[in-house]
UniProtKB/TrEMBL annotation:
<dbReference type="Pfam" id="PF13843">
    <property type="entry name" value="DDE_Tnp_1_7"/>
</dbReference>
<dbReference type="InterPro" id="IPR029526">
    <property type="entry name" value="PGBD"/>
</dbReference>
<protein>
    <recommendedName>
        <fullName>PiggyBac transposable element-derived protein domain-containing protein</fullName>
    </recommendedName>
</protein>
<feature type="domain" description="PiggyBac transposable element-derived protein">
    <location>
        <begin position="15"/>
        <end position="276"/>
    </location>
</feature>
Amino acid sequence: MIHQGLLLPTSRITRWRDTNPDELYVYFAILLATGIIVKSRADSYWNTARDLLSSPGFSATMSFDRYFLLSKCLHFCNNDDCNPHTMTRSEAKLFKVRPITDHLNQRFQQLYILSQNIALDESLTKWKGWLDINQFIRNKAATVGIKTYEVCESQSGYLWRFEVHVVHDESPQDSPLSGVVPVLVLKLLNGLEHKGHTVWMDNFYNSPALVRELKVRGFDCVGTLRLNRQFVPTELTNLTKGALAVGQVCGCTSGNVDLVVWRDKNLVSLISTYHGLAT
């Protein structure tokens, strides 16, 4: 490539040498350390100036050139094995990192037993580089980044499983449980059935059909609800702020599913298979 004029003789890649497991462990340790010691630029960690912001441990462990080369060349899959014609769009987009996400999910689940209360929500990992899967969410601490859907223990925040958001589902919804959200929820909770867990979710996920299905699978569900969801009674969907006084509650029960609307400054709607209306 140098003879073809594609690389300069002084390019870092010309100094590449094969790595080994021991060096990769050091590299991953440095990656973890950069999440604890936060600096604005990667090369700032290797600044040798003796000042209050210096971090001599990085340069003593690995040179910046070697760290940069490993970051540039690190791969977990053979690109020749990626055939977009035989993969779904989401599979193709995550092909290079799928072995890592699968391994992490497997280890997270093996190493910890969740307590009763678990939360299902989305998170945004800050990333300002160019990625087709980047998301913009205004009300998150990191407004731009990679969106993940996560199952965590409510008490400790332990991450038990996650899925990276890739594409929006545009397939037809033949039933209340065939949409992308119900399928995602059932996938994230797979393996936790009939263990006594109570799932806390917000109105992005909750629906009467989904919580009833989760009840069949041994989960209790609690969370806010959008009143325009399918199977919400018209008595609740037609409610307005003027229909209820501040602090007044209106509710409906169908089998083991409770729906409650409470008037605060605005109407707050809840769905539960865990609490009765009396509580």
